[in-house]
Amino acid sequence: xxxxxxxxxxxxxxxxxxxxxxxxxxxxxxxxxxxxxxxxxxxxxxxxxxxxxxxxxxxxxxxxxxxxxxxxxxxxxxxxxxxxxxxxxxxxxxxxxxxxxxxxxxxxxxxxxxxxxxxxxxxxxxxxxxxxxxxxxxxx
Length: 140
What we know:
Layout (H helix, E strand, L loop, with lengths): L1 H13 L2 H4 L3 E7 L7 E6 L3 E6 L2 E6 L5 E6 L6 E5 L1 E3 L4 H18 L3 E3 L2 E3 L21
Parallel strand pairs: 1-9
Antiparallel strand pairs: 1-4, 2-3, 2-5, 5-6, 7-8
């Protein structure tokens, strides 16, 4: 009887995304062709985080997507989104964990997952930072 109870508890816990997937996720942020851009990531779950590209950052999971705004001198600002989506592992709670497991996953953010990478496009501003001719004095 004790073994059966142990197996039942193990099955219930294994379906819980909070335990199997965690409440944080690693995401990469890149600005192709524009290294060392400063990117600000913002959402209610993660607050405000600032990284320099290319970057890998661990974010608290949440149901709200993360807004990304990148800047660098002589480039147009770039914006993007790290989309938040439903974590399929949560479906196990409906079968095995019931309302308690689903509630824990919802409260912890584990029922969500982010896209693993955000690529933010930035384009050079024409003429910005171009080498200026150096004035030369007369030789004499």
